[in-house]
Structures are given as C-alpha cells and as structure tokens.
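User: Quick sanity check before I run a bigger batch. Here is a single chain. Can you write out its predicted 3D structure?
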Amino acid sequence: MTAEPIGDVVWTPDPVKQRLAGYTVEDVFKLPDDAPRVELVDGVLLVVPSPTGGHQRINVRLVAWLERNLPESFESLLAVGVAVDYRNTLEPDAVILRSPVDLDHHFYTPDQVVVAIEIVSPGTKRRDRLEKPQLYAETGVPHYWRIEQNPVHIFGYDLVKGRYELVADSADEFVLSAPFDLRLPIREITP
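Assistant: Done. Predicted structure follows.
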C-alpha cells in the first residue's frame, strides 16, 4: 500500500529566495489564496502568527466600534496589509484609512493609512512595541495605536518630526483629538 497525497501541496516560501532575501512586494501580491499571512521584511517572508481568541475579539470589537463612530471621511479595516516599498510590507491588526477606500484590495499604500493599529500578543511583543512603530514612522503613517492585553490598555502616538510621541494612553477611556475627536470606552472592546 502506498500513501497518496490528499489535495494540493501547501504553499511554502522558496528556500533559495528566502536565503537570498530575494522576495519583492510583487511576489507577495502573487501569493496563492491558501498561503499564510506574511510580512515582507527586507526581501524575506515572515509568517504572521495566528492571533489568539482574545486578540481577535479585541480587534473585531475595535473595528466594529470604529465603524459606528468614525467620521465619514475615514474607514476602518482589519487584517489588511501596507505595501511599504519594493522589499517590505506590514500586516497591522487594523488600520484606519482615508475614504474612499477600494475594498477590492488587500494592500494599501502608507499615504492611505491614517492610523496603524497593533494588538500585542506574547509572540509579537518585540515587533509591535519596537520594530513596527519605527517602520510605520519611517513610512510617514501619522498615527500609531498599540493595544496591550490583560488588562486592555491603549497607547496612542502621533508622528512628530519622523518619530512617534505618546499623546494618550488609557485602560478606561481612550481620548484623542487627532486625527479626529475620539472617546473610546475600553470596556467596549475588552473580551
């Protein structure tokens, strides 16, 4: 008796291209539908870890709250990418984009992103707290929100002279005046 494969082989990165850091944003755009979520970092594909249930609940509740409360000139989405440049992409947990938004895309350019939002998980602490803010700042994304879990706490940053400066943080009510007036009760997004 011989074992026969069931279905198609699952997609994996080309090991030679990975070693040579030879992937580009065009390669990412051409990934098959069954490929895992990835970020392109200096030509190398990094698989984005699957979020926990609590992480997902915060994200879904946040985007739903934003949909109900954002001014009409903005749109919130989750699990979409930011095409930074030819050799780099980012996969924020959620974004707030300037309207109108073409919903047929998975990737948006940094100039379309008003706020990049990351929810910190045990496996993404370093990247969400240190690496991603720097990358978003370098691309000119004007606002960055970092959400910590257990307890839920939101930190809001504004881009000032190429670096993010903390402008708000709360575990009770997240209040901002830019890029729009916002009063987000943290309990409404807490699992």
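The chain has a mean pLDDT of 92.

User: Great, the batch can go ahead then.
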